[in-house]
Predict the structure.
Amino acid sequence: LEYGCYNCLEQTGYNCTELSNGTSVCREPCGDGYLTRSEKCDDGNSVNNDGCSSQCQVEMGWTCTSVSLSRSVCHTTCGDRMTVTAAGEQCDGGDGCFQCRTLSGWYCSDPDPLTLLSTCSTTCGDQIVAGTETCDEVANTDNLDGCDRCSIRYGWYLRLNQYTVTDCGDGIVVPSARGA
């Protein structure tokens, strides 16, 4: 039994050519939508970055399913820590990422081309309190306003989402509250 030919008939998913000596040679064309023995996937096209490569191999970060001789269906898995931007993922797991979308106040790196891993972090000074930040101001040039490097200073607190302030009479003396 030669793969692709059975009882001298060409089988689905194979292209067979008869040679001058009367024998036939069969090949498995990638991208025809028929999954055959040498292919890991076949989604019916020869496009890369859709889960099944132009060489009919499953691409990193993707999972492809199919039954023998049927078109493969490929998808990514949110939460596997591999960011597949071609599938619309902005991030994949970790701090600052929820359902493969970057949370407000977080910024995620482009995924590493070899591992597809990306890291997310907050940016102090973007006016969005996120992660371990307890306050966040643009420029933060006043070190006596209660917010210092995105942390509320001792004796200060956040009130009504405004700049941090102290309460007169709370027994805590802070530098900018003196002499009032």
Notes: The longest strand covers residues 15-18. Residues 125 and 139 are 6 Å apart (CA to CA). The mean pLDDT is 82.
